[in-house]
Amino acid sequence: MSGFLLGVFVNIYERSNQLIDAIYNELNDRILLDAGARTKLAYHCCEISIKHGIAVRVLIEQELYASALGVFRMQFESV
Question: How many CB atoms sit inside 10 A of residue 48's CB?
Fold first, then answer.
């Protein structure tokens, strides 16, 4: 892989980390109005997706790409 492509992937990975952190912080800093079961369900689905995203990051860092792909699929299906 060329140095340019590696740099692009590293940049995407770092920006992905920043996005996941920002979304997670935004969800945790908000007070949700009690709009019922649907709102709670949506919140928990987002939370599960974020946790799957974090797991994918950890697996990629450990070079466990097949496992990362499997967890990514679960993340996709949780939303």
Answer: 15
Contacts of residue 37, Cβ cutoff 8 Å, sequence gap at least 6: none
Buried b / exposed e across 7-22, counting CB within 10 Å, b at 16+? eeeeeeeeeeeeebee
56 class by beta-carbon count within 10 Å (0-12 exposed, 13-18 middle, 19+ buried): buried
pTM: 0.67
**Contact of 72 with 52, CB cutoff 8 Å:** yes
DSSP secondary structure string, 18-59?
HHHHHHHHHHHHPPPP---HHHHHHHHHHHHHHHHHHHHHHH
Q: What is the pLDDT of residues 1-41, one digit of tens each?
A: 566 666 767 778 788 888 888 887 887 777 766 778 888 88
Measured between alpha carbons, how far is 49 from 51 in angstroms, rounded to an integer? 5
